[in-house]
Structure formats: structure tokens, C-alpha cells
Design goal:
This protein is α+β, with helices and mostly antiparallel strands. The chain has helices spanning 33-37, 59-72, 81-94, 137-142, 169-181, 225-236, 248-252, 284-297, and strands at 8-9, 13-16, 19-22, 40-42, 45-50, 53-57, 100-108, 122-131, 144-148, 186-190, 196-199, 203-208, 211-214, 241-243, 256-261, 265-272, 275-276, 308-310. The chain is globular and about 55 Å long. Bound molecules: 4'-deoxy-4'-aminopyridoxal-5'-phosphate (PMP).
Length: 318
């Protein structure tokens, strides 16, 4: 195992439907609809420390996906994207964090115990915590060991893959547990048609002969915001990017392979099913993209895309 994963640190405050509540008071009733039927939608967002103070990476795009997820599940969010953006800024400032991971979450709460979710109220939380490299610092530097999962991703028109919904992560948990129990860091799943889909919480990229490949939208994986950032950075660096169906064996013969995600950032993959990726070392294009993306996020480089969202609110819980 290249990385055992990163620990996490509790913070003090959680935003709950417009109010700041203490971390330990952000509780829900056991009969809440979400506990029984997985009826939640959420986001994962990172805030980076920049020379101008904390900046949330691609907040607008994450909140767009959050409202999209709500729309797909007929979950009317009781707060506008503007209010949610302010909540995100407030929670970072209130907890006094410079770098953290933010988790906006909407659940179907305590209402009716039946499957129909429409009779249970929607409750919204925004929390954050300090979270290091998702697959470990060593994994970020040297690459992680992945396997092809025996679990497939969902078929289109079953669980909507464009929604970042709690229930979707049951499959991801099966993939992750199987991988970890078998001594791997992470799993890569195939879609129902046998083509590469994504990791348990990451999209996947391959590089071969200087061209960057990633699966095209096929209804089996989440449209990652980091995925989109990587495609734009690569193209703007003069690298050809092809969104393309990828058979399983493509990852065995790739020169470079990496996961992308908010938590995982750009995590190189050094082997799949114990077959070394390229020379088993982090590749040149992977490193360049890792450096550019994190460089923009942390304010080391200019931000031509408008991806940094500075945290402007003052610290405090008012
Ligand atoms: N796929 C899945 C299943 C995920 O959970 C994530 C993390 N949100 C991703 C892909 C990557 O998405 P993003 O880059 O927007 O974090």
C-alpha cells in the first residue's frame, strides 16, 4: 500500500439552515428519511491557502452541481446558490481554517417513514474540516496501487450518475472495501458495458504517446469538476485531450495514469492489478498537470479561469 489515507480533524462550527451550530450539536433524528433510504445530495470542495488568504476552488461550479443534484432528485433546496456560497465562506472563516475540505449536504429529514421522500423536509448543512492528501502524501508523490474492481458502476437510467447523491456511494463503498482488503489503495470500476468508468470517488485519466485520454460522459460516472479543470489545463498547455471510451486493457498499456477529484486532487497511479503503469514512476504530463492545477488553486500561478473564490467574510459566527 502506497498510502493509508489521511486523518481528519473535527472543527467547531457547522452551518445548519442559516444558523451556526456547534459541531457536536449538528445531529439528526434516527427516523430521518436519509438514514433509511440514502436520500441526500452533497458536494466536496477544497479551500486552499493563497498569498491573499483562503480561496475556495471552483465554488460556483460545485454549487451548480449541488443544485443540479437537487433538481434531479426533486429536492427543492431552501437556499439560493448565493446564500450557500456565503455559508461556505462563513464556515471556513468561523472555523479559522486556511486550507480545508468543505461538505455542503442536503438531506431528506424527519417526516414520513415511507419510501416517498416528498413528505420529509429538506435540511441543509455546510461543514468543513482539515483534510490532507486523500490517498496519502506518499501516494501523491509516488503514485498509488489500483485494481480493477469486480463491482461495476451503475447502468445509465438506474441511479443518475450526474447527481452526487448519497445512495450512489453504496457501490463506491463495495469497490473501496474490496480494494483495501486486497491490499490496494483504490479501485477503478468498469461501466455495465465493460468500459472503464471511474474510481470510487475520482475520475480517471490516461496518457499514451503524449495524448491525454479520459472516458466520455456515458451515464456511469460523476462529471468531475477537477476532470473539467484537467481537460482545460491540458488543452491550454497544447496537449491533445480525447474523451473516449476506454477498454480495460487500455489502463494496462498507458504510459501514465492518474485519478482526479476534489479530495484526491491529482493522484498518480503507479500500478493497476499489479501491472506497472509505464515505468512505475510518476509521469511527466501527470506532474505538469498536478503542478499547474495546485499552483492555480494555491495562488502560485495566475488564475486565467476565475477558479479561485476568495473567502472575504470576517471570522466569527454571527
Ligand atoms: N467521481 C466520484 C464518484 C466522486 O465522488 C468524485 C468526487 N466528488 C469525483 C468523481 C470527482 O469529482 P470532483 O472532481 O468534482 O471532485
Amino acid at each position: 500500500m502506497a498510502g493509508a489515507g489521511a486523518g481528519f480533524t473535527a472543527t467547531e462550527w457547522i452551518w445548519r439552515d442559516g444558523k451556526m451550530v456547534r459541531w457536536e450539536d449538528a445531529t439528526i433524528h434516527v427516523l430521518s428519511h436519509v438514514v433509511h433510504y440514502g436520500s441526500s445530495i452533497f458536494e466536496g470542495i477544497r479551500c486552499y491557502n493563497t498569498p491573499d488568504g483562503p480561496a475556495i476552488f471552483r465554488l460556483r461550479e460545485h454549487l451548480r452541481r449541488f443544485t443540479d443534484s437537487g433538481k434531479i432528485y426533486r429536492m427543492d433546496l431552501p437556499h439560493s446558490p448565493e446564500v450557500l456560497a456565503e455559508a461556505c465562506e462563513k464556515i471556513v472563516a468561523a472555523n479559522g481554517l486556511e486550507e480545508c475540505y468543505l461538505r455542503p449536504l442536503a438531506i431528506r429529514g424527519y417526516g414520513s417513514p415511507g419510501v416517498n421522500p416528498l413528505n420529509s423536509p429538506v435540511e441543509v448543512f455546510v461543514m468543513c474540516w482539515g483534510w490532507g492528501a486523500y490517498l496519502g502524501e506518499a501516494g501523491m508523490q509516488n503514485g498509488v496501487d489500483a485494481c480493477i474492481s469486480s463491482w461495476n458502476r451503475m447502468e445509465p437510467n438506474t441511479f443518475p450518475s450526474f447527481a452526487k447523491a448519497g445512495g450512489n456511494y453504496l457501490g463506491a463503498q463495495l469497490m473501496k472495501m474490496e480494494a483495501v482488503k486486497n491490499g490496494y489503495d483504490e479501485a477503478i470500476a468498469l461501466g455495465p458495458g465493460g468500459m472503464i468508468s471511474e474510481g470510487s470517488g475520482q475520475n480517471l485519466f490516461a496518457v499514451r504517446e503524449g495524448i491525454v485520454y479520459t472516458p466520455q460522459f456515458d451515464g456511469t460516472f460523476l462529471p468531475g469538476i477537477t476532470r473539467d479543470a484537467v481537460i482545460r489545463i491540458a488543452r491550454d498547455s497544447g496537449i491533445e485531450v480525447r474523451e473516449h471510451a476506454m477498454p480495460r486493457e487500455f489502463v494496462y498499456i498507458a504510459d501514465e495514469l492518474f485519478f482526479t477529484g476534489t479530495a484526491a486532487e491529482i493522484t498518480p497511479i503507479r500500478s493497476v492489478d499489479k501491472i506497472a503503469v509505464g515505468e512505475g514512476k510518476v509521469g511527466r504530463i501527470t506532474k505538469m498537470i498536478q503542478d499547474k492545477l495546485l499552483g492555480i488553486a494555491r495562488g502560485k500561478y495566475a488564475d486565467p479561469y476565475g477558479w479561485r473564490w476568495p473567502v472575504k467574510v470576517e471570522a466569527g459566527v454571527a
